[in-house]
């Protein structure tokens, strides 16, 4: 029984994703306590704002390919020539998207926070190389263990060079460059693995390029509203409050993202599996089981928020304990919402509903930030509460629609 379980492709891909996520988030948490103490709240805030800019840029250059390409490739896993055309089409589109994104970054840097030349170079390099990481390919062919290698190597390099180079309060730009170097290494290794798997650049048809644009556009919109809106919150804070406040918010948001990321390996592995099998019963069992498990770390973090912040970031960051508690609640709601999103609706062949739920909740968050701006209510805690409400809206929509659609399917059978 155990041998059968461990040999299942879902188990293998989930295990690879867990390892990848651990290195993706454990590595930063090895250096974050060091960076928060070395840079202080001000320098840490500047670094967090810059990283949020790279996150938004990644959403734009990804254009939803991380979801749309995974879905298309998972349904044609053995067609190497077709997948090679998809890779070429996406890479070509990404080059065009990068030109637009670079222009947008330049505008933001002119009117927002003043960064050093080294920090600006690090931002551009990170955005460029993260655009060609291509996790969607490995997810689609269900060989996530391959890209796990590049992730482990790059994160280890990141940890080492941060400890070697970042020594002073003004070294936030060096910290950003360390991240850029690690991203470059991960990108190069990932693309070497793509070539080793037998894929190459094959000229795609105009029809395929158009298909990728159209199919990805709805995913892009949802990603902009979901990931982009949360990162915009940091950038809005950076323009309205002191860098230290951005640092307090950023510290809690990092913990929130790490908490939520614990569920991503299962969700990402389930997405192509559900698209192929439609086994929604398995999904509900996984959601119920993991929800009970995740209650433990969520409860501990909520009760001991002050202690957690002191331990990880230093005593200066305990001023953000209320923000952390809000983010812990948001994280718990969010990781359930992740399961009830693309994996759940892929099993019903209705991923458009997952997209629409994100667009609605993300639209609410954008609107809330605009209202707070005009009411002069842009504070770290207000932005945190706005993210929590938006996440609750998304989960509510997904649960209601999932119940409605599954009930309809039962009646039609």
From TrEMBL:
- Keywords tagged on the record: Cell membrane, Membrane, Transmembrane, Transmembrane helix
What is the membrane topology noted in the UniProt record heading this document? Multi-pass membrane protein
Q: Give the UniProt subcellular location, in the record's own words.
A: Cell membrane
Which spans are transmembrane here? 16-35, 47-74, 86-111, 117-139, 146-166, 172-194, 282-304, 324-345, 357-375, 381-403
Question: Which Pfam family name is an example for this entry?
Answer: Polysacc_synt
Q: Look up the domain of life of the source.
A: Bacteria
State the name under which the record lists this protein. Answer: Oligosaccharide flippase family protein
Q: Identify the species of origin.
A: Paenalcaligenes hermetiae
């Amino acid at each position: 029984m155990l041998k059968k379980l461990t040999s299942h492709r879902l188990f293998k891909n989930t295990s690879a994703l867990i390892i990848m996520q651990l290195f993706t988030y454990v590595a930063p948490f090895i250096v974050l306590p060091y960076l928060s103490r070395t840079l202080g709240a001000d320098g840490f805030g500047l670094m967090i704002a810059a990283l949020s800019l790279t996150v938004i840029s990644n959403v734009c250059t990804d254009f939803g390919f991380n979801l749309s390409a995974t879905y298309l490739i998972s349904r044609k896993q053995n067609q190497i020539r077709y997948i090679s055309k998809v890779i070429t089409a996406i890479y070509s589109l990404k080059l065009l998207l990068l030109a637009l994104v670079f222009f947008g970054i330049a505008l933001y840097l002119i009117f927002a926070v003043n960064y050093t030349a080294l920090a600006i170079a690090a931002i551009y390099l990170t955005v460029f190389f993260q655009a060609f990481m291509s996790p969607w390919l490995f997810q689609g062919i269900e060989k996530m263990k391959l890209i796990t290698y590049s992730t482990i190597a790059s994160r280890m390099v990141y940890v080492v060079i941060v400890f070697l180079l970042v020594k002073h309060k003004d070294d936030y730009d060096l910290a950003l460059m360390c991240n850029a170097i690690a991203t470059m290494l991960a990108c190069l290794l990932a693309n070497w693995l793509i070539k080793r798997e037998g894929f190459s650049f094959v000229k795609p048809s105009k029809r395929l390029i158009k298909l990728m644009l159209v199919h990805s556009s709805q995913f892009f919109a949802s990603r902009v509203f979901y990931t982009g809106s949360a990162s915009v919150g940091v950038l809005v804070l950076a323009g309205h409050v002191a860098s230290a406040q951005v640092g307090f918010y950023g510290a809690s948001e990092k913990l929130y993202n790490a908490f939520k990321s614990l569920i991503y390996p299962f969700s990402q592995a389930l997405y192509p599996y559900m698209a192929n099998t439609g086994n929604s019963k398995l999904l509900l069992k996984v959601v119920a089981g993991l929800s009970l498990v995740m209650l433990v770390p969520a409860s501990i973090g909520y009760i001991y928020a002050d202690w957690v912040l002191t331990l990880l970031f230093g005593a200066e960051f305990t001023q953000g304990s209320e923000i952390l508690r809000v983010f812990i609640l948001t994280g718990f709601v969010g990781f359930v919402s992740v399961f009830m999103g693309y994996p759940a609706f892929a099993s019903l062949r209705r991923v458009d509903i997952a997209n629409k739920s994100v667009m609605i909740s993300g639209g609410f968050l954008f609107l809330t930030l605009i209202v707070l701006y005009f009411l002069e209510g842009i504070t770290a805690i207000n932005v945190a509460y706005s993210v929590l409400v938006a996440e609750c809206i998304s989960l509510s929509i997904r649960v209601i629609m999932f119940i409605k659609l599954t009930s309809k399917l039962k009646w039609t059978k």
